[in-house]
């Protein structure tokens, strides 16, 4: 049985940057707070926690004073920065540059469209950390759309600027865009009401999708390793499953089942942008033992 780890799977540069920043601080002081899970992977969070990383939530941040807090790759809304100033907290800001650029673009777009009595739509998961950071750029006034059902929150007779959480699927983004065009036509009987679509998907994720599909086809079975909270993990796993029905989602090597490997000659191991390489390697080792 041949076991191959996909060479493109694993941390994206945004996650690498945040983890490097955390490790550097931990090696100096042995203690660092991080607002939310540094990465959507429990195994990696546990590894860093054993070095002194302490995961906190917004409520705990408000109670802290005179310390250092890491902002992870997902970014934060402006209120977090205000709290830090008020409480004399030094922020180690590891917000991913792609997310920072998107925050800036949405802020500008919101300023523009509010003058036209229009709306900002963010295609993303309600409550997701990155989406909270994006919402904050509009004072909480953007409309978060997680799927077609949420479109009832939109006024199709008013102008719309559309954006996306960086890790959404390009196909789902495009389908939603087409549905909005359709509903706008019905509501207005004309195409003249402004609708600007900003493709703000991260190419670190969407660029992996076609390549991952090829990888899924090349192997008899796919073991997809990811934290259960990872948005891009869910999205990329679905892409694998479409190409190869023998695709299995696991978060730890203990979830591997021996019966999956009966009459299999090629095993492919891959993962999300939040999956550490060491975890995929430990999964490969366990499968080789089987
Ligand atoms: S997936 Fe893209 S936007 Fe998100 S942290 Fe990684 S590089 Fe940045």
The CATH architecture name of the largest domain reads 3-Layer(aba) Sandwich
Radius of gyration, in angstroms, nearest whole number:
21 Å
Structure summary, number of beta strands: 12
Structural class: alpha/beta
Helix content: 40-55%
Q: DSSP helix count?
A: 11
CATH superfamily caption of the largest domain = 4-hydroxy-3-methylbut-2-enyl diphosphate reductase, catalytic domain
CATH topology of the largest domain: Cobalt-precorrin-4 Transmethylase, domain 1
* Strand percent estimate: 15-25%
**Average predicted local confidence, pLDDT:** 95
| Dominant shape | flat
Query: What are the secondary-structure elements, in order, as H or E?
Result: EHEHEHEHEHEHEEHEHHEHEEH
**First-last Cα distance:** 9 Å
Main sheet overview: 4 strands, parallel
Q: Count structural domains.
A: 3
The set of bound ligands, ions and cofactors reads: iron/sulfur cluster
Which CATH C-level class of the largest domain is it? Alpha Beta
- Stretches where pLDDT is under 50 for at least 5 consecutive residues are none
């Amino acid at each position: 049985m041949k076991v191959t780890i996909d060479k493109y799977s694993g941390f994206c540069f945004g996650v690498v940057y945040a983890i490097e920043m955390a490790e550097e601080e931990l090696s100096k002081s042995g203690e660092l707070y991080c607002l939310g899970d540094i990465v959507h992977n429990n195994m990696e969070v546990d590894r860093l926690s054993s070095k002194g990383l302490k995961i906190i939530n917004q409520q705990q941040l408000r109670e802290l004073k005179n310390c250092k807090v890491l902002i992870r790759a997902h970014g934060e809304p402006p209120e977090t920065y205000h709290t830090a100033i008020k409480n004399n907290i030094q922020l180690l800001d590891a917000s991913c540059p792609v997310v920072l650029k998107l925050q800036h673009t949405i802020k500008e777009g919101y300023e523009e469209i509010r003058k036209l009595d229009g709306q900002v739509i963010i295609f993303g998961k309600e409550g997701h950390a990155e989406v909270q950071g994006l919402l904050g750029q509009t004072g909480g006034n953007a409309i978060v759309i997680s799927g077609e059902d949420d479109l009832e929150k939109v006024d199709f007779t008013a102008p719309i600027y559309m954006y996306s959480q960086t890790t959404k699927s390009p196909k789902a983004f495009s389908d939603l865009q087409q549905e909005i065009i359709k509903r706008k036509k019905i509501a207005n009987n004309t195409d003249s009401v402004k609708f600007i679509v900003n493709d703000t998907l991260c190419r670190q994720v969407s660029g992996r999708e076609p390549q991952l599909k090829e990888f899924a086809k090349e192997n008899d079975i796919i073991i997809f390793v990811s934290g259960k909270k990872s948005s891009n993990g869910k999205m990329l796993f679905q892409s694998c499953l479409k190409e190869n029905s023998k695709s299995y989602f696991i978060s730890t090597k203990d979830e591997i089942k021996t019966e999956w490997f009966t009459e299999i000659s090629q095993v492919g191991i891959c993962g999300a942008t939040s999956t550490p390489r060491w975890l995929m390697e430990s999964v490969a080792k366990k499968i080789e033992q089987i």
